[in-house]
Amino acid sequence: MPTQVTTEEVEQVVFNGLAELGAERDQISRDASFEELDVDSLDLVELAQIVEDKFGVELGADDVKDLRTVGDAIDLIVAKGG
User: Fold this and answer.
1) Does residue 33 sit in helix, strand or coil?
2) Are 38 and 23 contacting, i.e. CB atoms less than 8 angstroms apart?
3) Prediction pTM value
């Protein structure tokens, strides 16, 4: 039985994933936009795969197309994983 995903866990995985994709670690925050971090749609697909592997939460193209900030992504993942 899956356990509820916590915001802290998701935040850590998303921050680490973004750093792996080339975002500057010191620029990653909940308020940072993906544009500021130079994260493109392909990077978001890779991040969605990391999230799915870790939490079993699937993010489709419709889910990620409206995400603007790291916090938006974290909140969506927590909502879908809860």
Assistant:
1) strand
2) yes
3) 0.91
R_g over Cα of the chain: 12
Q: What is the CATH number of the domain that holds 77?
A: 1.10.1200.10
Within-domain flag for 1: no
Q: Is residue 69 part of a domain?
A: yes
Per-residue pLDDT of the chain (82 residues; tens, 9 = 90+): 356 789 999 999 999 999 999 999 999 999 999 999 999 989 999 999 999 999 999 998 888 888 999 999 999 999 998 6
- Residue 53 maps to a domain: yes
* Residue 30, domain extent: 7-81
Nearest to 50 by CA among 18, 7, 4, 3: 18
